[in-house]
TrEMBL record, chain A:
Keywords assigned: Cell membrane, Membrane, NAD, Quinone, Transmembrane, Transmembrane helix
Catalyzed reactions: a quinone + NADH + 5 H(+)(in) = a quinol + NAD(+) + 4 H(+)(out)
TM spans (from-to): 6-22, 29-47, 53-75, 87-108, 141-162
The family this protein is said to belong to: Belongs to the complex I subunit 6 family.
Broad class of where this protein is predominantly found: membrane
Topology with respect to the bilayer: Multi-pass membrane protein
GO cellular component, one term: plasma membrane
Annotated protein name in UniProt: NADH-quinone oxidoreductase subunit J
Organism in which the protein naturally occurs: Formivibrio citricus
GO molecular function, one term: quinone binding
Signal peptide coordinates: none
From TrEMBL, chain B:
Organism: Formivibrio citricus
The protein's name: NADH-quinone oxidoreductase subunit H
GO CC list: plasma membrane
Topological category with respect to the lipid bilayer: Multi-pass membrane protein
Underlying gene: nuoH
Transmembrane stretches, start-end: 25-49, 97-119, 131-152, 164-187, 207-225, 265-287, 299-319, 331-351
From TrEMBL, chain C:
Organism: Formivibrio citricus
Lineage start: Bacteria, Pseudomonadati, Pseudomonadota, Betaproteobacteria, Neisseriales
An annotated Gene Ontology molecular function: NADH dehydrogenase (quinone) (non-electrogenic) activity
Name of the protein in its database record: NADH-quinone oxidoreductase subunit N
Annotated Gene Ontology cellular component terms: endomembrane system; plasma membrane
EC number, as in UniProt: 7.1.1.-
Catalyzed reaction equations: a quinone + NADH + 5 H(+)(in) = a quinol + NAD(+) + 4 H(+)(out)
Keywords (A to Z) from UniProt: Cell membrane, Membrane, NAD, Quinone, Translocase, Transmembrane, Transmembrane helix, Transport, Ubiquinone
Any one GO biological process: ATP synthesis coupled electron transport
Predominant location: membrane
Oligomer and partners: NDH-1 is composed of 14 different subunits. Subunits NuoA, H, J, K, L, M, N constitute the membrane sector of the complex.
InterPro entries attached to this UniProt entry: NADH-Q_OxRdtase_suN/2 (IPR010096), ND/Mrp_TM (IPR001750)
Family: Belongs to the complex I subunit 2 family.
NCBIfam families reported for this sequence: NDH_I_N, PRK05777.1-5
Pfam families assigned: Proton_antipo_M
Length: 211, 359, 483
């Protein structure tokens, strides 16, 4: 059953990958890429690497590709013109792909890869790959893990430093100020008599006290 | 409790006997899925009625009262109406994606329920990384919105999709950070274990030992982010009927439109269920375990908590005006994320001290 | 496994630097435009603290940490000390330059410190993963720094070129590393080295990987034929950052190459030695010949860097202890010389004016005889004229090359240096024998004047007394080499 599922997912993966390159519409291509990632996650799931599989969906499908689609939809890119050189560059690309395939075969057939004897280890009962991965990351790979975090921080600083522009002439509201405002700052309530007294002259005429 | 679980396994054993292991597994899973999705759909239907009734009362109106006693058959009538309506496809729409969109909203809203526990053992798939699974699956719901917004080939729909993409990405971060706090104190990603952990601790399984009190800021952030993720009031700028008419749903009618609604309400129930499982102790009782009947864990507690949180959803809708878009972004990035980060650091430090209550 | 087993103490300088960089970054939020000097001061304090911590651990024997991911050995500590000096020189020389160009900002300081952190990790990585992340940390910081002056078209173009070619080089390097991993089944350097020497590796695949690694290193060093980015980036980047790219990272690249080739892939010494020879010879010839045709000083210095990298590789190619030590000495002295040369350019530059043409140095002797003399020292040192440090650096490399029996290489290197002397001396000629076009006195802050003078005099001093430094570096290499 696992094998049948593997071939099913693998076929979907390859077809989706082909759609990514061949689709005329960039949004279709991006969506095919989403399918690719999702199917790849399924393949991981088949070898019982559930943490990696779900991380792939969470990060690539859930975040990266959403932003990617956002950009693809917002920008009016003319993909036809980008596509023009496809057949012209095909021989070069094909050669590179062939070389990479050869090298990959070399790696896989090397003594340490040991593919012919490789069997998926049956995880022990109660084995939790998320926990195992966490333990490794925080002990053995502690340094690269922390440095990778620094690397991401640098990426963030770089992105902000290169794009953030403080515009002087924009009008904006500061909600904190808005909330902090008191009624007394905006409205002055004047104490007044509800009724105006009648004219002074009439007063005097009536009473006749202050002449 | 053991007997109950044994009883639960009986159909599986029977099926294994007659169908073989693989087929029995598939059949058993399907049965469990039906048992979850069926009541869920019923819940969705009556949540719409509850919404109209409650908001009606809050606005000193009666709400639907014509169909059936107290309007109880209203959802059925609404459903029939939506099913019978014609589905109109705009001529310039991208037809395939136009129909894929609503389905893509529905699928994650249903699929996420696979790992939600109702009671120990009562869960479709009790997996180790349940929490991550929920996050991954719910984050995919946004594709439906984006696809339908884009495929409709309409300005309003497209604007709605853009708003949805930006909003969901922003609030997902805050939500994820809020969940990290839960993971830290639970030491597990398994939802059943997260609930069980809340039954332990110095207060011995009462409301005091839930995650609610030590993780209060995270609970608030989670629930408010949940409002934003489901595009509910006051974060419903994606629909924004006064600005962009109905956002991504504008071109849909009939059942395709209904799918968006089903998904929205299913997601509301999901967020409430998750909040109840992660912070409010799921099926655990708020009373100390020493009190006889009231202190025992029970599925009804779960229902009560979810119902209360759903009531909050409706209450907020009747109370708050809609956020402006920039204010919404500010809240997500500049308030929620710093709050959660600070709280995670505090909790982490607390856990290392001798005063830790999670040992 | 607990915290104590990680042996965090070996990375005290790095940890201090990281914390300091974060403090600088945070302090910047609370500082307005006028108070950026506070962040600047904090940055210099961070560098001083790091240098102090490095000196504290000087002379200790190699100490591994982080489960063999990291190693603090004399070689890395010495290289790190040089890098800290290099970054500090950049910040002091470039202070007013950066202020006039609107890049005197918190990001400049923070990213410089992160770049330094990357370099330090590159020097101390004992695992392919750590080495690679260190390299990326350095590269990413540098790409962003070069592009920081956003409205400067040349800088943006330089950053783009640097980024694209740098990413390509990183990719090649990573591909090579993955192949070596495939061949040996290990990522940490001692194990790889051991597996290769006892022939437990797939040789064909490992050598494939070696080719990619050498190519990646060639790109990063800027050796011919992978040098295309060097002139454009050096020329286009703000001079302050040209100095950052041109000085301290060369030390990091040396240590990085040492870890990869001399330690991990020591078993393939004949293979990489011949590859490096090709790179070195091409760099020497192309660098020196192309530099003659330049009229822009920064471009000329870029080609001169290429030729200097040829020398550095020559020492490496020898593959002996003395060869590595000579290379190390070369990298150290080149760091100081390059810092001084770019410091001179910034000294003469003003607002809206870059002294990046050779013609801008016309008659400097009449405008300011002291700095003309300083520039003379720098140029003589670069040309390799005796009594200046550049001479001894070249001499040490040539000695190592001759000891391997490759006399023709030594002869070629000397011939190329003679060609090189021509264009360095042309700058001297322009300074002393031409009439000044610009009579304005030099308006530079006293701190950069004093430090630049010290830097240049150090080139002379090290040239007079090179033994001390050379001994220290030789000993560091000796004690750091894998048994």
């Amino acid at each position: 059953m696992t094998l049948a599922l593997f071939y099913l997912f693998a076929a979907i993966l390859v077809l989706a990958a082909l759609r990514v390159v061949t689709a005329r519409n960039p949004v279709h291509a991006a969506l095919s890429l989403v399918l690719c990632f999702f199917t790849a996650a399924m393949l991981w799931m088949l070898i019982k690497a559930e943490f990696l599989a779900i991380s792939l969906v969470l990060i690539y499908v859930g975040a990266v590709m959403v932003l990617f689609l956002f950009v693809v939809m917002m920008l009016d890119i003319n993909f036809e013109s980008l596509r023009k050189g496809f057949w012209r560059f095909f021989p070069v690309a094909g050669t590179v792909a062939a070389i990479m395939l050869g090298e990959m075969l070399l790696v896989l057939t090397s003594r340490y890869a040991n593919l012919s004897a490789a069997r998926l280890p049956e995880p022990a009962a109660g084995f939790n790959s998320a926990k195992a991965l966490g333990k490794l990351l925080y002990t053995e790979y502690f340094l690269p893990f922390q440095l990778a975090a620094v690397l991401l921080l640098v990426g963030m600083i770089a992105a902000i430093a290169l794009t953030h522009r403080q515009r002087k002439n924009t009008k904006f509201q500061d909600p904190a100020d808005q909330v902090a405002v008191k009624a007394a700052d905006r409205v002055v309530v004047l104490k007044m008599e509800a009724e105006k007294p009648a004219h002074a002259e009439t007063d005097t005429t009536h009473t006749g006290e202050k002449a | 409790m053991m007997e109950l679980q044994q009883l639960l396994q009986l159909p599986l054993q029977l099926m294994t006997q007659y169908l073989g292991t693989d087929l029995a597994f598939v059949g058993w899973s399907l049965l469990k899925i039906v048992c979850v999705i069926g009541p869920l759909m019923g819940g969705v239907a009556y949540l719409t009625l509850a919404e109209r009734k409650i908001i009606g009362m809050m606005q000193i109106r009666i709400g639907p009262n014509r169909v059936g006693p107290f309007g109880l058959l209203q959802p059925v009538v609404d459903g029939v109406k939506l099913v019978l309506k014609e589905i109109i496809t705009p001529s310039a729409a991208n037809t395939g994606l136009f129909y894929l969109g609503p389905a893509m909203v529905m699928i994650p809203a249903m699929a996420a329920w696979a790992v939600v526990p109702f009671y120990p053992g009562f869960v479709v798939a009790d997996i180790n990384v349940g929490l991550l699974y929920i996050m991954a699956i719910t984050s995919m719901g946004i594709y439906g919105v984006i696809i339908s917004g884009w495929a409709s080939n309409s300005k309003y729909a497209f604007l709605g999709a853009m708003r949805a993409a930006a909003q969901v990405i922003s609030y997902e971060l805050a939500m994820g950070f809020a969940l990290i706090g839960v993971m830290m104190v639970s030491g597990s990603l398994n939802l059943t274990e997260i609930v069980e952990q809340q039954g332990r601790g110095i207060a011995g399984g009462s409301i005091l030992s839930w995650n609610l009190i030590p993780l209060a800021p995270l609970f608030v952030v989670y629930f408010v982010s949940g409002l934003a993720e489901t595009n509910r009031c006051p974060f419903d700028v994606v629909e924004g009927e006064s600005e962009i008419v109905a956002g991504h749903m504008i071109e849909y009618s009939g059942m395709t439109f209904a799918q968006f609604f089903l998904a929205e309400y299913a997601n509301m129930i999901l967020i409430s269920a998750m909040a109840s499982v992660l912070f409010l102790g799921g099926w655990l009782s708020p009373f100390p375990a020493s009190i006889p009947v009231l202190g025992a864990p029970c599925f009804l507690w779960w229902v009560a908590k979810v119902a209360f949180l759903l009531f909050c959803f409706l209450w907020f809708r009747a109370t708050f005006p809609r956020y402006r878009y920039d204010q919404l972004m500010r809240l997500g990035w500049k308030v929620f994320i710093p709050v959660t980060l600070v709280w995670i650091v505090l909790i982490g430090a607390w856990m290392q001290t001798p005063f830790s209550i999670w040992k | 496994m607990s915290w104590t087993q990680l042996n965090l103490a070996v990375a005290t300088p790095e940890i201090f630097l990281l914390v300091a960089a974060l403090i600088v970054l945070l302090s910047d939020i609370f500082l307005n435009e006028r108070n950026k000097s506070i962040a600047y001061g904090l940055t210099l304090a961070a560098l001083a603290g790091t240098a102090y911590l490095l000196l504290q651990s000087a002379g200790q024997s190699p100490r591994p940490g982080f489960n063999g991911m990291f190693i603090a050995d004399p070689l890395s500590q010495a290289a790190k000390f040089g890098m800290v000096i290099g970054v500090a020189l950049m910040l002091v020389y470039g202070r007013s330059y950066a202020r006039l160009r609107g890049i005197f900002r918190g990001e400049l300081f923070a990213l410089s410190l992160f770049a330094l952190l990357g370099m330090m990790v590159m020097a101390s990585g004992a695992n392919f993963v750590t080495l690679y992340i260190g390299l990326e940390l350095l590269s990413l910081s540098l790409y962003a720094l070069v592009a920081m002056q956003r409205n400067n078209v040349h800088a943006t173009e330089a950053a783009m070129k640097y980024f694209v070619l740098g990413a390509l080089a990183s990719g090649l390097l990573l591909y090579g590393m993955s192949m070596v991993y495939g061949a040996t089944g290990a990522l940490d350097i001692p194990t790889i080295s051991q597996r290769i020497t006892v022939h437990g590796a797939n040789n064909l695949l490992a050598i494939f990987g070696l080719v990619f690694i050498v190519t990646g290193i060639g790109f990063k060093l800027g050796a011919v034929p992978f040098h295309m980015w060097v002139p454009d980036v050096y020329d286009g980047a703000p001079t302050l950052l040209t100095q950052l790219i041109g000085s301290a990272p060369k030390l990091a690249a040396f240590a990085f190459t040492f870890r990869l080739l001399a330690e991990a892939l020591a078993g393939y010494k004949p293979d990489w030695s011949s590859m490096l020879t090709i790179l070195a010879v091409l760099s020497l010839v192309v660098g020196n010949v192309a530099a003659i045709a330049q009229t822009r000083l920064k471009r000329m210095l870029a080609y001169s860097t290429i030729s200097h990298m040829g020398f550095l590789l020559l020492g490496f190619m020898a593959g002996t202890r003395d060869g590595y030590a000579a290379s190390f000495f070369y990298a150290m002295s080149y760091m100081l010389t390059a810092a001084a040369s770019f410091g001179m350019i910034m000294l003469l530059s003003g607002k809206d004016f870059e002294a990046d043409q050779i013609a801008d140095f016309k008659g400097l002797a009449k405008r300011d005889p002291w700095f003309a003399a300083m520039m003379l020292i720098v140029m003589f040192s670069m040309a390799g004229i005796p009594v200046f440090v550049g001479f001894f650096a070249k001499f040490a490399v040539l000695k190592a090359v001759i000891s391997t029996g490759a006399i023709w290489l030594a002869v070629l290197a000397v011939a190329c240096s003679l060609i090189g002397a021509f264009y360095y001396l042309r700058v001297v000629k322009v300074m002393y024998f031409d009439e000044p076009e610009n009579q304005a006195p030099i308006a530079a802050a006293p701190d950069s004047r004093i430090l630049l003078s010290v830097n240049c005099l150090l080139l002379l001093l090290l040239g007079l007394l090179p033994d001390r430094l050379l001994t220290v570096l030789t000993e560091a290499v000796q004690r750091s080499m894998l048994p």
